[in-house]
Write a structure and sequence with these properties.
single chain; alpha+beta; 6-stranded mixed sheet; 4-stranded antiparallel sheet; 12 helices; 17 strands; 34% helix; globular
């Protein structure tokens, strides 16, 4: 069943192309969704979210890394690192909420006083919870914790995404400390995924491929990119995930992150669907590119296959001990050797990004990154060829470094006519 354009626009809010990563369409009555999306369902009884004991172990690992890197404390405000280490989910605003972790013991917490009851619902590790009234300084409480725990004159790490106003406030209140980046600790933990994390991510990726397949099966001439993005959000919702996709048609696919002038879908158009969702706090990120309603032209097929060859070359290069930049170079060489420009001419972006609790996180498959691959690292492998005024083709899968090589979390793309194999 095809949704009316009016109904789709009502449900998606008429979002611009590429902007819809979650949509009210996800809550649409099932009988208003296309059959391929209606057929989707969530089945996750065999996989569990991250446990409290696992989060305690992460905090212990962080404390070990703090000693190795000479940090006496780490301060983490609201955001993905706070979720990763403690499970606490708190939106970022002008009011400071966060945790202070020293080398020993459980974290201490600082919260707005009027939010203390809600904070205690979120705080599962650590009984030291300090509240500040609206006229008081939360940073004075951070400084007091540091002093009481022997870190008043030490080196403290600030989580890298912390707003500047928080960092400046802490620096002023704890003027004797040396504030540095906490990335060696936070990334040092988060970059390496264990078997449980990889299992969650693999399931999330499999769900996104299934969502992409259902969306490809639901395409119809005249659909807009935002309408199809709404279908992707609905598909992910049916699979038990909050998610969605960037959707690009034809010439618009040459813009890796979309255009302000999207065109409706026509037979023979390239269709690029790039998206993912969140499962138990972990992200998926998969791109499938196909041809709608017609057999691929010789040129479309050739470019599609070159991009697939570049993706495969990167995959075959990745293994423990190899530098991140070598994986990027392997894919770029295939594209250059095929006659599609050197350097960033037609593969206009880095090959890939790390992924985990954040869709983009440490480290990156890019020239200049000499970081050596280690087992447990997870990345996107996403080469593309972008020809402005003609087409863009990108294939993206999530790979993980194993003890003796590399593994893909999903099946590879199928064909230009059937790109979302499951």
């Amino acid at each position: 069943m095809k949704l009316s354009r009016r109904r789709l626009l009502q449900l998606t809010g008429g979002a611009a192309a590429g902007a819809t990563f979650a949509s009210p369409l996800a809550a649409a009555p099932p009988d208003e969704l296309p059959p391929a999306i209606q057929a989707l369902s969530a089945k996750d009884d065999d996989i569990a979210p991250i446990s409290l004991d696992e989060r305690r172990a992460r905090l212990g690992r962080a404390q070990t890394l703090m000693v190795e890197h000479g940090l006496d404390a780490v301060v983490i405000a609201s955001g993905s690192s706070l979720v990763y280490f403690t499970g606490a989910r708190w939106g970022t605003s002008e009011r400071f909420f966060g945790a202070v972790l020293t080398r020993k013991g459980e974290p201490a917490w600082v919260t707005p006083a009027f939010e203390k009851e809600r904070a205690t619902e979120q705080i599962a590790i650590g009984a030291d919870v300090r509240a500040w009234q609206e006229h008081e300084s939360p940073y004075a409480l951070v400084a007091a914790i540091l002093e009481e725990r022997g870190a008043a004159t030490g080196k403290i790490g600030l989580e890298e995404t912390m707003p500047f106003v928080f960092a400046a406030g802490i620096g002023a209140a704890a003027s004797a400390v040396q504030a540095v980046s906490a990335t060696p600790v936070t990334a040092g933990c988060r970059m390496i995924k264990d078997a449980h994390e990889i299992a969650i991510m693999r399931r999330a990726c499999e769900k996104t491929v299934a969502a992409h397949r259902a969306v490809f099966q639901s395409l119809a001439p005249g659909m807009t990119q935002s309408e199809v993005a709404g279908l992707s959000a609905a598909a992910h919702s049916r699979l038990g995930m909050r998610g969605g996709s960037l959707v690009l048609f034809g010439k618009d696919a040459a813009y890796p992150h979309g255009t302000t002038k999207p065109q409706p879908l026509r037979e023979g158009d390239i269709v690029l669907i790039d998206g993912g969702g969140t499962l138990f706090d972990y992200e998926s990120d998969i791109t499938r590119t196909g041809v709608f309603g017609a057999k691929a032209t010789d040129r479309q097929r050739r470019i599609w296959e070159i991009v697939r060859a570049a993706q495969k070359a990167a995959f075959e290069t990745a293994r423990p001990g190899v530098e991140c930049q070598a994986v990027d170079a392997a894919a770029r060489k295939v594209i250059a050797d095929a006659g599609f420009g050197s350097d960033y001419e037609h593969l206009t972006h880095r090959l890939g990004h790390g992924i985990g609790v954040d869709g983009h996180e440490w480290t990156y498959l890019v020239r200049g990154n000499t970081t050596k691959l280690r087992p447990g690292m997870c990345f996107s492998d996403e080469p593309g060829i972008y020809l402005y005024g003609e087409m863009g083709i990108r294939h993206e899968d999530i790979i993980t470094i194993t003890e003796d090589g590399v593994a893909n979390m999903t099946q590879w793309p199928g064909t230009p006519e059937e790109p979302a194999v499951v």
